[in-house]
Amino acid sequence: MAFLMLLHEKLRLQRRVNKLRLRQLQASSRKDRITKNIERVQKMYSKRESKLQKMAQMMQSQFNVWAQNMSGLGTNGLNPMAYAAAGGLSLFTMKGMQQWAKEAVDAKYTSGDNNGNLIFGSGYGTPEQLLQAKQNGTLKQNYVDDPENSGKQILDKERPWTDGTNYWTNDQVGTLNAGINQISMMEQMQRANVQQMSAQYQNNISIWLEAQEAQLEAEQDAALLPLQEQETEWDLEANSCQVLLESAKQRLQAIESELGEAVKDSAPKFGLG
Fold first, then answer.
1. Dist. CA 187–CA 271, nearest whole Å
2. What is the pLDDT of residues 162-177, one digit of tens each?
3. 143-145 and 140-141 beta bridge pairing
4. Distance CA 194, CA 207 (A)
5. Res 84: pLDDT
6. Lowest mean pLDDT: which of 3-7, 69-73, 85-89, 190-194?
């Protein structure tokens, strides 16, 4: 009778061990699927965050280009290699001086200065030619033979500047240099304004990006929360099955040991034991 009871308990425990193993496998499998879903959601939101950051960088770059063009500091079709050919003048300064040269035919330059002296008039190169000489680097001081010292040269007082073909006075060259200095100061002011505008826009972009990332993080947390809860649930289920399975296996091992002893006790001894 005891043997049958032990055998029945063994069969019951074997069924329990099999069921627990199946539950554990199912729980682990479901947990793995949910873990993969969590990873996919995290990757999706990581890509969206990266896209936001790239968008912020693009908007900042586009604003910088727009601000420079609006301030006259951008390329706007000008040759970016013209700096070397402009005698060290920036594109902004060259553009301003080209306008200066076009307007140099008004009374301020051709009819006389405040003292009634002609700044540009007949017998000298034009403002355009002077600017071109400055731009090409061909504007040099004009030396002539010294009538008092044979073999020596002195600076021509009437025409002290030349490009090899045309001539200009100190006043004319001074007018050009004064215009360059004035436009250069305007350029510095414009650059400072652009930097200030860019810094302010960068601050606004940072605020916008921070708000967008916070919203994205909240969406991700909302999407992950139910998945993480399910992951935890199936993880606990798998661990619980493992504990129960170890207990059932230990009990089954004990029952099998008792059955072994019972078999020995019930075997006929024929007077040998």
1. 122
2. 998 889 888 888 888 8
3. unpaired
4. 20
5. 44
6. 85-89
Confidence of residue 13 (pLDDT cuts 50, 70, 90): confident
Buried-state track 242-264, b at ≥16 Cβ within 10 A, e below 16: bebbeebbebbeebeebbeebee
Residue 118, CB-side half-sphere exposure with 13 Å CA sphere: 12
**Cβ distance 96 to 183 under 8 Å?**
yes
What strand order describes the sheet that includes 167-168?
140-141, 161-162, 167-168
User: Torsion angle of alpha carbons 66, 72, 77, 78, nearest 10°?
Assistant: -140
Distance, in Å, from the CA atom of 159 to the CA atom of 40, rounded to the nearest integer, reads 80
> How far apart (Å, rounded) are the C-alpha atoms in residues 243 and 95?
84
φ, ψ for residue 141, nearest 5 deg? -70, 145
Pull the structure tokens for residue 180: 């360059």
81-137 pLDDT, tens digit each = 444 444 556 677 777 777 776 665 444 455 445 454 445 666 677 788 888 888 888
Residues with Cβ within 8 Å of residue 11, at least 6 apart in sequence: none
What size, in residues, is the chain? 273
Q: Which residue has the tokens 């606004």?
A: 204
Report the phi/psi class of residue 88: left, alpha or beta, with left for phi > 0 and alpha for psi in -120 to 50: left
CB 220 within 8 A of CB 42: yes
SS (H, E, C) 45-108: HHHHHHHHHHHHHHHHHHHHHHHHHHCCCCCCCCCCCHHHHCCCCCHHHHHHHHHHHHHCCCHH
Q: How many CA atoms lie within 13 A of 102 on its CB side?
A: 6
- pLDDT tens column, 226-257: 999 999 999 999 999 999 999 988 988 888 88
Question: Under a CB-based contact definition with an 8 Å cutoff, are residues 152 and 208 in contact?
Answer: no
